[in-house]
Design brief:
Elements: H1 2-10, H2 21-29, E1 34-38, E2 44-47, H3 49-54, H4 68-72, E3 75-78, H5 91-96, E4 103-110, E5 118-128, E6 134-143, H6 145-165, H7 169-183, E7 188-194, E8 200-207, H8 211-214, E9 220-221, H9 225-233, E10 237-239, H10 251-255, E11 259-267, E12 270-279, H11 287-331, H12 336-347, E13 354-360, E14 366-373, H13 376-388, H14 398-405, E15 409-411, H15 416-425, H16 429-436, E16 440-448, E17 451-460, H17 469-507, E18 511-515, E19 521-524, H18 526-532, H19 536-539, H20 544-547, H21 551-557, E20 560-561, E21 571-577, E22 580-591, E23 594-601, H22 603-638, H23 646-677, E24 686-688, H24 690-702, E25 709-715, E26 722-724, H25 726-742, E27 748-757, E28 760-766, H26 801-811, E29 815-820, E30 826-833
Parallel strand pairs: 20-22, 25-27
Antiparallel strand pairs: 1-2, 1-6, 3-4, 4-5, 5-6, 7-8, 7-12, 8-9, 10-11, 11-12, 13-14, 13-17, 15-16, 16-17, 18-19, 18-23, 21-22, 22-23, 24-26, 27-28, 28-30, 29-30
Helix pairs in contact: 6-7, 6-11, 7-11, 11-12, 11-17, 22-23, 23-26, 24-25, 25-26
Length: 835
């Protein structure tokens, strides 16, 4: 630059001591910035050491004398965003053309890719003469490679801090997009994520869009549109003009986006979504922006994955918490109807906008137990709608299908054709479905082992949410737990019913026996034990034919029904147990576990029936004999052909009188027994003279006492008065004396005694007659019982005298007893309270 530098630059200075060429070289050579001077034709006439280094040459001499174009051909030039740079836009060329002074960031690398890329900031100055003609163009440039890299790192670090500063996906994504938009000077930014099925991309979060624009967003199928193709190909896209590509979702065009960068979000080799930033200017982004966004994308994907994992963990914890609360609720009560209704309330709004519970009734119909919504008014409205549109048990979808198959139905997006089909079958349902606005559904069975009990239905509606497979797994688990709870409640109820039935069977008076199909006794209640005298321990779990005497007769003769409602009439059977003969009324019914026999002890009833039969026979005899005597005597008196003397007539009249008296006593005895049985006889208690009552009876009995008997009265000292009904006392004494006379056919003495006891007065009648066997003492006061029923000794009677005596004494608060030995007579005594 000899004369140019010395003459034009140095000689024109106003300094007192102009710089020499060497001085100028020393000054410019030490400057860190590259300096090059161009002649008007573009030749480089000067370059310092820094300029040579930036151009990749050894010394300035390799630069001077050549044109700028020669050096530019050695490099590929790009603008800061990474687009190829037109050399005419360089500041030196613009200065040569006389354009305003400017500066420009230039990215350059050796042509052919043989070296690293650098970034330089260059500016150029025009040097003109006094006439304004161009003399030189001075270009000054310096390397900013490290600064640009640092700025990129700063931007990446800024994004990274945002990523690390948030753990919630809800908080992370908006902050992340704001940072990306700021870093790339973009107008909009958005993240679309793939659904669980990997079929659709849905815009999850965005910044820069208006709500009315976002309302136009639609899911983007994988492989279609901009985002779908980026996700499918995993290649980023740099779009300079959005009008040149096909879009599925109209959101970008609605906002007026002109240029865009879209990059795939990949974690561990799996595409999870797409991020894109947009600008309202065409060609706003360059390859550098794309590269920067790619660097940021790794952090975005990792952050999304981390947040998704955290959200998944939180969701899992919430699901566990929900299941824990539901399990506690299911275990809190055995009233499963109320419990399932509360489960439906628990599910809203945590798992559904709507929740219904349906149970399968025994007759096959479907019964709705609960309908819940966060708004109680809507729940009531839904119940009314449910009554208007009853569930069709034969429907091919929904609750009926789940109840029939026992398999859940999962509808993350309710198909329009499904709703249309439902409305076609029931036209009135359209208004209901429009009002509800269902968007997603899942129906799970309430299942117990081997059977489906009901179904729980979950629906998203107003919230617009969608169910995921994880939600279905949670709901199915809830259905299983509910099924177990319902099954346990039903089993408990059945156990309670069985327990109650067992308690009832244990306490009833009839004997109950369960004999299984193998003939083993499986149940033997207390009444069976009491009736037969066979302890449970000797009968249970043994063959009935071995444990129960005479069981083969029961099996052969006892009627058995297969219908519990139509139990056959019981059959009376004898059963010998030890030395006892039992008469049992037995019937059976066949059940799943074997045969249940019920029997009743008829031994006493049969004995009583035998006594009744004997009584009828005896009474017939007792009535027929005096009637025959009366009739015969009367007919004899009426015969005109026979002349009766006074003695004969008197004898016949005595027969009539005596037999009539005997007949009257028999009828009176029957009447007394009838009045006692019907509880129509009540004594009138008053203070009585015990000795006087006994004396009256003895005097009356002596009047017609047989000649071979003697009747005596004995009393001990002064007797207290007795509290009794005098007529009833006379009746009891009369019966006892009559009984003593009747059972003393061989004669002897009959003695009536009256004595004082502490708080009582004791009456006793002793005879020397036949006596009573010890085994008969217990039955001697039973109704219709007679010691000599076959009248082998000619002793008649109705068998009611002692029964009437016992009942009369009992009604006067007394007690009666007998002591006797066969062949040595009997003593009957009764005690009545002293007045």
């Amino acid at each position: 630059m000899d004369e140019v530098a010395a003459g034009s630059i140095v000689e024109r200075t106003d300094y007192a001591h102009p710089l020499s060429r060497d001085d100028l070289e020393a000054v410019l050579g030490r400057i860190g910035e590259g300096i090059a001077v161009h002649a008007p034709d573009g030749r480089i006439v000067y370059a310092n050491d820094a300029a040579a280094r930036l151009l990749g040459l050894d010394a300035p001499t390799d630069v001077v004398g050549s044109s700028a174009g020669e050096h530019r051909r050695r490099f590929d030039l790009f603008d800061l965003s990474g687009r190829p740079l037109d050399p005419s836009l360089l500041p030196a060329e613009r200065a040569r053309r006389g354009e305003a002074e400017s500066e420009l960031f230039v990215r350059f690398r050796p042509a052919g890719g043989g070296g690293g890329e650098q970034v330089a900031l260059t500016r150029s100055v025009r040097i003109v003469d006094d006439r304004g003609d161009l003399r030189y163009v001075v270009s000054i440039f310096r390397s900013v490679t490290e600064e640009v890299a640092a700025e990129a790192l700063r931007k990446i670090e800024q994004v990274t801090k945002t990523v690390l500063g948030q753990f919630s996906l809800v908080d992370l994504v908006p902050s992340l997009l704001d940072q990306i938009r700021s870093v790339l000077a973009a107008d909009t930014a958005a993240i679309l994520l793939l659904d669980d099925a990997g079929q659709f991309l849905t815009m999850r979060v965005s910044v820069g869009f208006a709500e009315e624009e976002l309302s136009q967003a639609v899911p983007v199928p994988l492989g279609q549109g901009l985002a779908g193709r980026v996700a499918a190909s995993r290649d980023p896209w740099l779009v300079d003009d959005l009008d040149e590509i096909e879009l599925v979702s109209p959101v970008l065009r609605a906002h007026g986006i002109q240029s865009l960068i879209a990059i795939p979000l990949v974690v561990e080799g799996k595409v999870i979504g797409v991020a894109h930033v947009g600008s309202e200017e065409k060609r706003h982004f360059g390859p550098g922006d794309l590269q920067l966004l790619e660097l940021i994308a790794d952090r975005i994907a990792l952050a999304l994955n981390q947040s998704s994992l955290l959200e998944a963990e939180r969701a899992a914890q919430e699901r566990l918490s929900f299941l824990g609360e539901a399990s506690a609720l299911l275990a809190s009560s055995l009233d499963y109807v109320d419990t399932l209704a509360r489960i439906a309330q628990l599910a809203v709004p945590r798992l559904a906008d709507w929740c219904t519970v349906d149970m399968l009734a025994e007759d096959g119909s479907i019964r709705r137990l609960a309908t819940t919504h966060v708004d109680p008014e809507k729940a009531r409205w839904a119940l009314e709608v449910g009554r208007r549109f009853a569930v069709d048990p034969d429907a091919e979808v929904g609750v009926p299908l789940v109840l029939r198959t026992g398999e859940p139905q999962f509808l993350p997006d309710i198909p329009e054709e499904l709703l249309a089909s439902a409305m076609e079958r029931r036209p009135g349902l359209k208004a209901v479905l429009d009002e509800v606005g269902l968007s997603s559904a899942m129906i799970v069975p309430i299942a117990a082992p081997g059977r489906t009990l009901g179904a729980i239905s979950f629906f998203w509606a107003e919230s617009g949410r969608r169910y995921t497979p994880a939600d279905l797994e949670l709901a199915a688990d809830l259905g299983r737990r509910a099924g177990i709870a319902v099954d346990n409640a039903q089993l408990y109820r059945e156990a309670e019913e069985r327990g109650q039935a067992a308690r009832i069977l244990a306490s009833v008076g009839d004997g109950i026996v369960l004999v299984d199909h193998a003939g083993i006794v499986r149940y033997w209640n207390r009444a069976a034990e009491a009736i037969t005298g066979l302890p449970r321990s000797t009968v249970l779990d043994r063959r009935a034919i071995e444990a129960i005497p005479g069981w083969e007769t029961v099996v052969r003769l006892a009627p058995v029904s297969v219908d519990p409602v139509g139990i056959p009439r019981a059959h009376s059977l004898p059963l010998g147990v030890g030395e006892r003969e039992l008469w049992l009324s037995v019937s059976g019914v066949s059940v799943a576990d074997g045969t249940v026999y019920a029997f009743r002890d008829l031994t006493e009833e049969r004995a009583l029936e035998t006594l009744r039969t004997e009584f009828v026979s005896t009474v017939s005899h007792e009535l027929r004999t005096p009637l025959a005597a009366i009739y015969g005597a009367a007919m004899t008196l009426r015969r005109e052909e026979i002349v009766h003397d006074e003695e004969r007539s008197s004898m016949l009249l005595d027969v009539i009188t005596n037999e009539s008296d005997r007949l009257a006593r028999t009828v009176n005895a029957i009447l007394w027994a009838s009045r006692l049985d019907s509880d129509a006889l009540s004594p009138t208690i008053e203070t009585c003279d015990a000795a006087g009552l006994a004396r009256d009876v003895v005097d009356a009995q002596r009047a017609h006492l047989p000649a071979h008997l003697r009747l005596e009265l004995a009393s001990e000292g002064e007797l207290p008065p007795v509290a009794a009904d005098p007529d009833k006392v006379r009746q009891v004494l009369t019966n006892l004396v009559d009984n003593a006379v009747k059972y003393s056919p061989d004669g002897g003495q009959i003695r009536v005694e009256v004595s004082a006891e502490p708080d009582h007065v004791r009456f006793a009648v002793h005879d020397e007659g036949l006596g009573i066997p010890y085994a008969e003492h217990r039955r001697i006061f039973d109704k219709f019982y007679r010691l000599d029923p076959d009248m082998t000794r000619g002793i008649g009677g109705t068998g009611l005298g002692l029964y009437i005596s016992r009942e009369l004494v009992r009604r006067m608060d007394g007690r009666i007893s007998v002591t006797s030995e066969p062949g040595r007579g009997s003593s009957f005594a009764f005690e009545l309270p002293a007045a």
